[in-house]
DNA sequence: CCGCAAGCTGAATCGTTAA
DNA sequence: ATTAACGATTCAGCTTGCG
């Protein structure tokens, strides 16, 4: 327990094999954000995430990165996670400190919080940077393990994982979430499995509820956690003590949740498979509609998605636009569902 | 044709609505990369991608960003695409230049080049930054069009798109790919559809084979392209001339409700669409109110505008009375918003 | 005990106009 | 420059409660 820079300063040079760091993001949130149904978003407004300026944040980052670099073995690697608020500062400062970026990894959240006001794209991912100490370092990368984890295909730089919720979310003594930004164990599982060997020492300078420690213990890695807040240290300690070493059944929980890719009709328009301006009709040419640039369609009376317009024209409560509508061009009628299959095959 | 900084310097202040920039990535490649079957990877080793040091790259980036900022309208936005080699420099310098990041977007490539050596994760994405000139800017974001393009779900920050290949890839006179890093039209299509209006001026300071110009022309946007290499200018010019604009009906996208003309509820009462004395209720018939002659409504406890009374009854901070209240008559429940649409259509 | 509906929640830089 | 009023806006997954 203590300040991460002061505590790292007490560790010897080149003594840890891997560092995983989840530093403050410096979110710079404004006033309250209200949900459409009236509820308030429980924002991360803790003091530990507040910095006076970008310069202050940069100074803090430079300092802890310098200690991290000193402690890290020459062939060790460092992982840092962040969002667009801070990751560009962190990435630049990592490069300035002569770290060598091996990959940037995108954590694509399967269930992110929506953008309630319709003002931006849903902020649906976070970014992780994986770096060696220099270009020539002989770092650990368990290529085969990653390939096995990904159905015998190379593991890519984008990882789809759900956010940490439900039973995995650590609760405090009042039953509330113990920490505003707890990371999912599946994320740490993949990182530790990819970049460490059993018995390696993993350091997490922003330990929080101890996800890194719990997964390290489960995978037979040694760990060091540094955390400033007494409340977090307390829940982390209890959590890790309750963690059992991995058994085979638990491994399946960690695997990717895979499902058939959903195709939006708009993607066919973007890719040119169904050009904007094209005419759609049903199999008996009773109704017609025109495709618009954004993938919505318009008949003389209605506009909206292929499903909504199909339903409205027929006076039906619902309609599967994929099988109802056909592209009407020089080659004749082609069911949209056939074009969708073609699009999926091309991917 | 010319150097991007020199040419931008000739453009007036605050004169373009949007900037899309695909600057050199400063890839810092080592020796040749050989594929498992023996072929050599055709790497991007052009002179224009080489910089002496990170500091040189930063200086170059600072310079063109300063010109870009000067040229951009106050409510305009800038997009920059990059990979892990350069995007952390660019993101940091954007923030240093007081740009305000709205989103970082991940272009997840459906068909990336594998990692032939098995030494890292497959580098399967690139990153785009979307920024306004400052926090308060009132930028263009066609929320409804993006939602339509994504099957009526909010468009997320991770976009799955194939790389540019096949017939879309521009060839030179010898049949070789004309440019090593041509971007797919689908990427520009989504960006221009999301963040510009028809007739807007889009600037691309690193024009290459003119993808931005081709898509801008197709979507009825004006464009300015700056490119240093004569060979690229030549293929870009031919390509754009061969691109046909969409006609206006195809270019139409789902309208944003915010841009629709305001209708006072009282107008519906005046016109008889909602008769004074009528009963309003919510979709679940939990609350009721009576319409008064002046367009105010009254429940047993509260009276005022449709918004105020809706908020008060629910104990919510605010309420959209148009979607909350329904006219309750012989035909059943009709949402006020539907009656508003009917009123607008009748005008 | 099951099935279904309703409710809650997550690292969020989350509005515009006119008086 | 400040304030009030208008009115636009959500996805996936888990939990709780009721029949």
TrEMBL record, chains A, B:
Domain RAMA: 249-345
Protein's GO biological process: DNA replication; methylation
Any GO CC annotation of this UniProt entry: cytoplasm
Transmembrane stretches, start-end: none
Catalytic activity: a 2'-deoxyadenosine in DNA + S-adenosyl-L-methionine = an N(6)-methyl-2'-deoxyadenosine in DNA + S-adenosyl-L-homocysteine + H(+)
Entry-linked SUPFAM superfamilies: S-adenosyl-L-methionine-dependent methyltransferases
Gene3D superfamilies per the UniProt record, alphabetical: Vaccinia Virus protein VP39
Keyword terms of this UniProt record: DNA replication, DNA-binding, Methyltransferase, S-adenosyl-L-methionine, Transferase
E.C. numbers: 2.1.1.-
Top-level taxon in the UniProt lineage: Bacteria
One MF annotation (Gene Ontology) recorded for this entry: N-methyltransferase activity
Residue ranges of every copy of the DNA methylase N-4/N-6 domain listed in the record: 16-236
Protein family: Belongs to the N(4)/N(6)-methyltransferase family.
Name by which UniProt lists this protein: Methyltransferase
Organism from which the protein derives: Sphingomonas rhizophila
Lineage of the species this protein comes from: Bacteria, Pseudomonadati, Pseudomonadota, Alphaproteobacteria, Sphingomonadales
